[in-house]
Amino acid sequence: MSTSAAKDEKTEHNKKLKAYAFIAITSLINVASIAEAKEVLGSVTGAEDEGQPTQNSGNSTGINLFWGLFTLFLSMIIIFIDVVDIIKNKFDFKTIMDGKLEGYTLLGFVLCWAIGVIFLTRAGGLGYESLNVYFSTWATFFGCCHALNLWLGEKDFVTMQKLCSLSSTLPYWWILWFASIVTFGSAADARRLIVGDDVVTALDSCDVAIGIGLASFLSSFFFILSHYEFLQCNVCMTWMTYGGMFELAVIVVVDIWQVVAVHTLTSAGKIASTISGQGDVATGVDYVPGSNIYFAVWCSVIASMSITVKWKDARAMKFAQTQHEVNEEEGLDVTDDNEEN
Fold first, then answer.
1. Is the pTM of this model over 0.85?
2. CB half-sphere exposure, 138, CA atoms < 13 A
3. CB within 8 Å of 20: residues ≥ 6 apart
4. Burial of 287 (0-12, 13-18, 19+ CB in 10 A)
């Protein structure tokens, strides 16, 4: 590499500045919203002292502030280093350890907010005290994932785009897989917090959500594995693989139970009828906690319908891939016969 080319690379600004700015903004909103919720948390703590069922936010204001403060300060420092040329010429963050330090930092962001999502948006969590907390939590998590994905692309590692490029249905199988985990986990967590004789329907709908989430997880996980050819048995390599009639049959069944799930879980009085829950958290009377189930079941039904729509494209891609493999094998056989002769 010439001296001028090396100088240009060093003086080039970080291409992920917009991603870092997005993380900083959503982290700031998250921190500010949690700080404003302290008064509400005080009343909830009082309910806990009386032994009443309450939200999981409890006394955890400090740890809940950590996630936002961590990414806010680090992303602001990264932006500051990159835009101030005097500092950047001496300490270019994106080139330290050949860029690996930035990759480790972004991976830390993702892992940090994966835990933060669990803490803040679990059933009855702090995210339902203020929807600014809820939406900023998810926005920051996905913003960190996007920034890490950009870094992977810059370093020629496997990105989400490459990971999902094997067929037209694979991205939606991944979405269904993720949404089913959220549905299952949120429903199992919410079930233990529902209290009151008048919310029995919400309690029963939790059992439905657990079953729907588990079934969706297993079906999506199977076809994700089939895309990456982890299922190498002869049966799985024929009619049970993606792009075949088996995938179409399964996804039609998944469509049916996802539509049933949306109707069952989001109807009035059910566990996903609202985002923030219902009832009096302080007294625990007829209390149904807020949860992620509402958005998760809608994401699931949209993903399953998208798989159905995209199945024909996936079948065409699979046929072309199979035909290419057959042609290669026939070409090798012809070459071997010629060499023997």
1. no
2. 13
3. 14, 75, 78, 79, 147
4. buried
